[in-house]
Amino acid sequence: MRCLSSARDDGVVGVCYLETERLVLREFTEGDVDNLVGLDADPEVMHFITGGQPTSREDVERVILPRWLRYYVESPGLGFWAAEEKATGEFLGWFHFRPGEGHAADEPELGYRLRRSAWGKGYATEGCRALIDKRFAEQGVRRVLAETMVVHTASRRVMEKSGLRLARVFHADWPYRIPGDEHGDVEYALDREEWERQRAPGAGDGR
């Protein structure tokens, strides 16, 4: 797979982590502040996260981005990656594999956040599948997890199309009240054995 450093006209340069047919996933840099602030400024993007409240520039600059940059040094193979449209170089959002809360290091949590302009085009599934395959094939993962709200049907479809299966429904205390949160949250999972079965000859797409 061809995967070179990603450089754009706006000066943001990040080491490429992987490529798919239509996406480049690269490391974040300090030059991505505007990208992240703009992404989180859309109340529709943030609806199922904060109830629509944006993330402040101060939080992005002082807390979020510095923490993400440390992943590349402290936890290789884990972290957050900026997603760009390969054809245009446009910033679309991000994907992550991070340590799952209460889970072992070989059970990372998958997640993503994309601009509204990228919704409904299959980018989320494309990026998730590529990350899952890379983690299982190259980095010794035993199980992949993902979480969302019960009522977030679009996110649940992405998880299912990416090969994950419903593992449990649970209720957690979150700092923001979001319509439908009384129904709780869902955890999806995919273990190595199921991933291998999905990829076996004759298994079809399976996802």
What does this structure look like?
Strand 1 and strand 2 form a beta hairpin. The strands form three sheets. The chain has a five-stranded antiparallel sheet with strand order 3-4-5-6-7, with helices on both faces. Strands 8-10-9 form a three-stranded antiparallel sheet. The model is unreliable at 4-9 (pLDDT under 50). It has one domain (6-199): Aminopeptidase, CATH 3.40.630. With 207 residues, the chain is an alpha+beta fold. The chain is globular and about 50 Å long. It has six helices and ten strands. Helix 1 (33-40) crosses helix 3. It has helices at residues 33-40, 47-50, 57-74, 123-138, 153-161, 192-199; strands spanning 6-7, 13-14, 16-19, 23-27, 79-85, 91-99, 108-114, 143-149, 165-170, 185-191.
List keywords for this structure.
207 residues; alpha+beta; Aminopeptidase; five-stranded antiparallel sheet; three-stranded antiparallel sheet; 6 helices; 10 strands
Question: What would a concise description of this structure say?
Answer:
The chain is of the alpha+beta class and 207 residues long.
Query: Which CATH class is shown?
Result: Alpha Beta
The CATH superfamily is identified as: Gcn5-related N-acetyltransferase (GNAT)
Name given to the CATH architecture: 3-Layer(aba) Sandwich
Physical arrangement of strands within the biggest beta sheet: 3-4-5-6-7
Q: Low-confidence segments, ≥5 residues, pLDDT <50?
A: 4-9
Quick check: average pLDDT?
91
Determine the number of helices (DSSP H or I, runs of at least 4 residues): 6
User: What is the succession of H and E elements?
Assistant: EEEEHHHEEEHEHEEH
According to CATH, the fold-level topology is Aminopeptidase
> What is the strand tally?
10
What Rg is obtained from the alpha carbons, in whole angstroms? Answer: 17 Å
Q: End-to-end span in angstroms?
A: 22 Å
Name the shape in a single word: globular
The amount of helix comes to 25-40%
Mind describing the biggest β-sheet? Answer: 5 strands, antiparallel
Query: Which structural class do the helices and strands define?
Result: alpha+beta
